[in-house]
Q: What sequence folds into this?
């Protein structure tokens, strides 16, 4: 037996033919808010031009100079990480066998606490900017429609405006302080279903855990999956899956190792308390297994044996999809995040097949 | 091979010698608030006598006549479930080989949003009432000190007042809207450590998930473990385990199948972000494995094989303790909640040994 160093193993991996990858979470951004000006009408445009508005901020100071991002993702010209298409192409698209990368953005119009019409206008401007400056540049890039869910009718209009664009595969809803099962948000689901768009959810800065924001960034970050747990439960309890039978969901960047617990807990509660929610027609786990995909990032430090134990607990290999989270600090590189020891078919499901089935013909 | 019916199997089980059990969660209560009057001084006593105060309420209507409780736990005289000692003795203490049952209460002084001194007075009155009306009646009964954590100095005084009572084994903190790692609450930990008391935590009515209370009871109930996750994270991040090196914790009635996920996620984040919290000296999972016990109830619907997978993921059989949650609807009967197929030693750990080690000499 020849023992290879880690570097040699990685080099060998790089040489062998690899299966295609779909990356469900790339956080592109602009170099400054001014890039949105051409896509905004007055009175909104003036608010940006006059510096009359301060974007929402995140309360934590970081202990590293690169803040939330991979140190090498900062363009040499000092522009923000994630704002340089060429660097992204070099570091992700051409670095790995990426067949498609789905943009998820960094700005979330849902984070605005006031002036909902302004939030919707910013969302539309951002969507137009992304289509022109990112999606148009590479056929491997698909994107999400950003809407302001605080105004569901406006969100639905935006979905109708862009929902059939060939570069658009999903609607992005921030997991912040809204449980989207609430019928208040159903106009968004109705519009998305009409255009065969996936509903994607990703945590956003306003998210708090059950006991608040936390005193440090690490505390906030550890608790992030709670938002995803609450969204899954909210969708189930409010009967969203039967009301919108064609709608598919994906929850990105909240991990997945908590999923067996949630499936069991939901089923156990449903068996005892289904009288309370007669519009829910079957076991919650069945809806979730068939209708929601979870991105693996950020993968946690557990063994391949534990990966397989978790998959056995889930009773399906169809729920996981891959994402890198570029350019954030906890970026998942394909070779290092999904253990090589996993069966080839499971790896293919995670890296490619499940996402391919999720987006269907939208990927062309 | 003789096939036995479920009834026959259960009957056989009942005949065979059983290992002792420690039940960590019994929700005793009074028949009415007036029972506390002899233990209250003015001006607090008058508030109850004059009906000047409305206890906090829980917003959900229930679809069953027995509400939150086992149908057979309601005393024939119409008094509240959990208020009749003899019925509890018959249904739990004498029904199973209970060596000790730890009372956890239903009233939580921490639930009061205002008038903190009144909350502390109610807590003290309740503690005195429990010691006289429950603990004094059976040597198998131990109890928790109820305090108002919103006033940590008052809570510490109450712990000093009752901390060495032989019937007292722990301090109860409600998991509602407070993350107890915050140094604001450390006077409570300091006092508990001085008296060798365990810190127990149990969810309470004010608890909300990351996205709010939920629209139905089932939604609220499914999301309950998020409070426990946030408490565990808060204790770790704030360095509580090194600051109070002798203090042990137990989190009751939030389940445990989410624990592997949380250990992994905490460790992964610690490896990358430990600079932010230099007072945390080792991997979070190590602190948690050694210092926190989790009660198994409410056990979820998963197989013995999955129990064993989860125990392998935890890498220890020392974290789980047993509880019934009497008289609540999701009561766990010993024979039915912990699978018979589990190894005997693991069952003994869950039913008895881990709790015995947790409380140490406090159990006599």
A:
């Amino acid at each position: 037996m020849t023992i290879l160093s880690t570097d040699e193993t990685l080099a060998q991996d790089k040489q062998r033919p690899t299966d295609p990858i779909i990356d469900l979470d790339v956080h592109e951004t602009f170099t400054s808010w001014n890039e949105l000006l051409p896509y905004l009408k007055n009175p909104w445009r003036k608010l940006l031009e006059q510096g009359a508005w301060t974007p929402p901020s995140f309360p934590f100071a970081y202990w590293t100079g690169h803040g939330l991002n991979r140190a090498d993702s900062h363009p040499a010209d000092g522009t923000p990480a994630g704002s340089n298409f060429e660097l992204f192409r070099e570091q992700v698209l051409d670095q790995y066998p990426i067949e498609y990368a789905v943009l998820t953005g960094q700005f979330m119009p849902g984070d605005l606490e006031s002036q909902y019409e302004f939030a919707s206008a910013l969302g539309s401007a951002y969507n137009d900017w992304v289509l022109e400056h990112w999606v148009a540049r590479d056929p491997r890039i698909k994107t999400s429609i950003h809407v302001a869910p605080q105004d569901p009718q406006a969100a639905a209009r935006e979905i109708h405006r862009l929902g059939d664009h060939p570069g658009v595969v999903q609607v992005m809803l921030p997991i912040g302080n809204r449980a989207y099962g609430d019928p208040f948000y159903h106009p968004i689901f109705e519009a998305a279903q009409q255009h065969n768009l996936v509903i994607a959810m990703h945590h956003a800065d306003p998210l708090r855990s059950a006991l608040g924001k936390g005193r440090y960034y690490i505390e906030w970050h550890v608790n992030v999956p709670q938002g995803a747990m609450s969204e899954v439960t909210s969708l189930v309890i409010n009967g969203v899956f039967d009301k919108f039978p064609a709608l598919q969901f994906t929850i990105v960047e909240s991990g997945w190792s908590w999923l067996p617990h949630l499936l069991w807990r939901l089923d156990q509660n449903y068996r005892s308390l289904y009288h309370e929610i007669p519009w829910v027609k079957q076991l919650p786990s069945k809806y979730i297994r068939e209708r929601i995909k979870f991105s693996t990032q950020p993968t946690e430090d557990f063994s391949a044996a534990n990966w397989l134990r978790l998959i056995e607990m889930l009773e399906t290999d169809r729920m996981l999809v891959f994402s890198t989270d570029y350019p954030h600090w906890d970026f998942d590189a394909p070779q290092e995040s999904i253990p090589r020891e996993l069966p080839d078919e499971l790896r293919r499901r995670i890296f490619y097949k499940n996402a391919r089935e999720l987006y269907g013909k939208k990927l062309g």
